[in-house]
């Protein structure tokens, strides 16, 4: 099969990242199986020929490109324009997280929440689980353990820079990049993707506050999630019960609204804690 630049472009969703210093564009393509959403980063909206070749190679290995993404944008052109205006305003005010937005610009926060609630989920087939977490929370190790095979690179220098799907026998796992600049998520495409997921797992390794801003964002747009305390093996045995109580206390103090479950696990040593089996069984039964 041959895909030209002309018929490639309509199948891409352009993600504008509201960075304080520069604007980058992430191009997201949805292939013939809507449960696969892959992201290809680019520095500008004009794709160099070398990057086009790479995009063609990556997408052809998965499946034929579809026009679902472009159709979504066309159906929601007015909503997209409102998101873009809001993003420009937040860039101008140097707002870099949902917590900062809520603290310093309540009017803009209300606008964002209204837009997010008006955004339709992007269609994803089957059971789709998103893994959220900052760098070093062990997402790649978690992915490998849940799938029972090494599919994601781990260790120093292995950092997720794009949304990437990993197929399991009963669900698709989505590795979502950790963002220091959380405003990157304040786009129609990201919100529609978050809403399209069957389940959202927020990984932490010490305290809820590591990713509380992301949790508050999900709270406000009506999305439930589970908190996964990974690397629990690094907590001394005599301190583990105290840490569990601390996490539950933080959830109440911060005022999180839509936490469904809290798991204490070690993806490096899955059988070390009973929560691993509980979590795994829950995820496998989501489609039932």
Strand order of the largest sheet: 5-6-4-7-8-9
Text of the CATH class of the largest domain: Alpha Beta
CATH architect. name of the largest domain: 3-Layer(aba) Sandwich
β-strand number = 9
pLDDT averaged over residues: 76
The rounded distance between the terminal residues' Cα atoms is 37 Å
Number of domains: 2
Q: SS-based structural class?
A: alpha/beta
Low-confidence stretches: 1-66
What series of H and E elements makes up the topology? HEEEHHHHHEHEEHEHEHEH
Overall description:
With about 290 residues, the protein is α/β, with parallel strands linked by helices. It folds into 2 domains: about 5-70, no CATH class; about 130-285, P-loop containing nucleotide triphosphate hydrolases (Rossmann fold, 3-Layer(aba) Sandwich), CATH 3.40.50. The chain is about 40% helix and about 20% strand. The chain is built from 11 helices and 9 strands. The chain has helices at about 5-10, 50-60, 70-75, 75-90, 100-105, 105-120, 140-145, 190-195, 210-220, 240-255, 275-285, and strands at about 10-20, 25-30, 35-40, 130, 165, 170-175, 200-205, 225-230, 260-265. The strands form 2 sheets. It has a 6-stranded mixed beta sheet with strand order 5-6-4-7-8-9, sandwiched between helices. A 3-stranded antiparallel beta sheet has the order 1-2-3. Helix 4 (about 75-90) packs antiparallel against helix 6 (about 105-120). It is globular and about 50 Å long. The two termini are about 35 Å apart.
């Amino acid at each position: 099969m041959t895909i030209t630049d002309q018929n490639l472009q309509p199948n891409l969703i352009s993600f504008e990242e509201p960075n304080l210093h520069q604007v980058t564009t992430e191009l997201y393509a949805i292939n013939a199986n809507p449960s696969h959403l892959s992201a290809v980063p680019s520095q500008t909206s004009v794709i160099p020929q070398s990057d086009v070749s790479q995009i063609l190679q990556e997408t052809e290995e998965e499946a034929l490109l579809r026009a679902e993404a472009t159709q979504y944008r066309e159906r929601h052109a007015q909503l997209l324009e409102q998101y873009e205006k809001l993003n420009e305003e937040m860039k101008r005010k140097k707002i870099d997280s949902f917590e900062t937005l809520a603290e310093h610009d309540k009017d803009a926060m209300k606008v964002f929440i209204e837009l997010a609630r008006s955004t339709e989920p992007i269609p994803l087939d089957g059971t789709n689980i998103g893994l959220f977490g900052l760098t070093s929370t062990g997402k790649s190790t978690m992915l490998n353990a849940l799938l029972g095979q090494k599919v994601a690179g781990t260790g120093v220098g292995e950092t997720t820079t794009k949304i990437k799907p990993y197929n399991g026998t009963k669900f698709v796992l989505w590795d979502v990049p950790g963002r220091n600049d959380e405003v990157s998520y304040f786009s129609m495409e990201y919100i529609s993707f978050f809403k399209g997921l069957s389940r959202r797992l927020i990984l932490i390794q010490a305290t809820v506050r590591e990713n509380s801003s992301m949790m508050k964002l999900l709270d406000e747009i009506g999305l439930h999630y589970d908190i996964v305390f990974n690397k629990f093996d690094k907590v001394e045995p005599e301190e583990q019960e105290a840490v569990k109580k601390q996490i539950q206390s933080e959830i109440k103090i911060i005022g999180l609204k839509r936490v469904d479950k809290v798991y204490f696990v070690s993806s490096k040593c899955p059988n070390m804690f009973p929560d691993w089996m509980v979590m795994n069984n829950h995820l496998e039964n989501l489609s039932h």
